[in-house]
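Lab notebook, bench 4. The sequencing result for the construct came back, and we need a structural model before the next group meeting so we can plan mutations. Quick request posted to the team channel:

Model the 3D structure of this chain.
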Amino acid sequence: MTEEQAGKPKAKTGLAHLWAAAGYSAAGARRMWREAAFRQELAALVGFCLLFLLVGAQAGEFLGLLVLGLIVMAIEALNTAIEEVVDHVSPGWSEFAKNAKDMGSFAVMCALVATGLYAAWVVFM
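Done. Here's the predicted structure in token form:
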């Protein structure tokens, strides 16, 4: 047995698995809070919600905004995960590391643009 396998915890099942998964998600949320981009995206979502209130948006429109906001946060989390893995695997500069980070950034930008277009449609249409 390798050293890594000896320290690996036993897999959990049932309710213990659900409880552990909730803990992992909470840890991920705490980690994301340290990212300025995540905090800015969350602030923008709150701002859009306030704007939707001002223009009298319908419940379904709020739901659409919240779904898009969650998608942005999920993609931001995946982008951060990519960056951390790339930084660990390739601590120096490399073309592959740059490309991986740039593509993650592009994914976040696409989600942000989609959210912005949706918000503009709700506010101005």
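The chain has five helices and no strands.
Will bring this to the meeting.
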